[in-house]
Amino acid sequence: MIGPEIERLIQLLAKLPGLGPRSARRAALHLMKRRDGLMVPLSDAMATAAEAIRTCSVCGNLDTRDPCTVCADATRDRSILCVVEDAGDLWALERTRAYRGLYHVLGGTLSALNGVRPEDLSIGPLAERARDPAVREVILALPATVDGQTTAHVVTDRLAGADVTVSRLAHGVPVGGELDYLDDGTLTAALKARRPY
Amino acid sequence: MIGPEIERLIQLLAKLPGLGPRSARRAALHLMKRRDGLMVPLSDAMATAAEAIRTCSVCGNLDTRDPCTVCADATRDRSILCVVEDAGDLWALERTRAYRGLYHVLGGTLSALNGVRPEDLSIGPLAERARDPAVREVILALPATVDGQTTAHVVTDRLAGADVTVSRLAHGVPVGGELDYLDDGTLTAALKARRPY
């Protein structure tokens, strides 16, 4: 009893992360009630973004310019590269305003299960960039999962020839976190890496 | 550090029900990684739907034709009108395939808090339709909330002149539901409306 145009809209909305079939229907209804206020602007914003977005040829970030805003920013510290899994993690680090170096987006993590091999990731270009004498440090900001840590290991191996310090993010108690709710691994890591008060 | 096109996309996605600022960012990233596979088709589907969808001039349903598919279907029972809050509730009832009559979409429920008055809802046109001698019954399928029940009361008042039976959905234990998790009101209603086994 729903027209094919609406069915198709619901099906496509259901492919967004965080939306299932039921919430996609709710989202479609919400859009249908706000055709001029939301549906048309959102459609236009998607078309515009799809047209404008490109992958940065230097670091692999997604942006509306190439090189991306970060790579093109002359004030950034070009001696540090921060290696991230994808552009979302890059955005998360940018939001902290705590990092002023450059990035390198791997495009995923190694995964035997999902068939992601080292040659599927941007590891070669990273090794290339790390050979630049201006680069002194490579920070591995990869997920603290098994796949993330395997990836970190492989990346470190590939950086062996380059004259760079390889570091990783600290493990520990999340700021604002209760000890009671933490897993044993994190608590052990936080204890081992304790710092003078 | 994100281009204005991406910022705008995130802002608009965050207006969808079920997506907050954080999940809107994740959805935007998901779309940006699948530009040809999802972002462009979804943009097109929204534009097509926004163009095609109209409000049914008979019942208030949202569909790609007017009168809507339900109102235009000659096999539906024209002696019963089922009154719903919005098109989403109509879809939910249609999915059950348990109802073969027509609908009337009120467009909301009365709400002192949100300033929704009787004249903001499609109550007049409902009274008009109910005066048709072919209509024998009006089923109030309104939410079992305070606002929904106030609306049901006002609608019933407005139907007083018409020669129709007014009924409402049964309250009771949801099928598959555990008694333990039910609120007292529902359990009381289910007990009072008990049926011979």
UniProtKB/TrEMBL annotation, chains A, B:
PROSITE patterns: RECR, TOPRIM. It comes from the Bacteria. Keywords: DNA damage, DNA recombination, DNA repair, Metal-binding, Zinc, Zinc-finger. It holds the Pfam family RecR_ZnF. A zinc finger (C4-type) spans 56-71. InterPro entries: DNA_Rcmb_RecR (IPR000093), Rcmb_RecR (IPR023627), Rcmb_RecR_Znf (IPR015967), TOPRIM_dom (IPR006171), TOPRIM_RecR (IPR034137). Residues 79-174 form the Toprim domain. Belongs to the RecR family. HAMAP family: RecR (MF_00017). May play a role in DNA repair. It seems to be involved in an RecBC-independent recombinational process of DNA repair. It may act with RecF and RecO. This is Recombination protein RecR. The gene is recR.
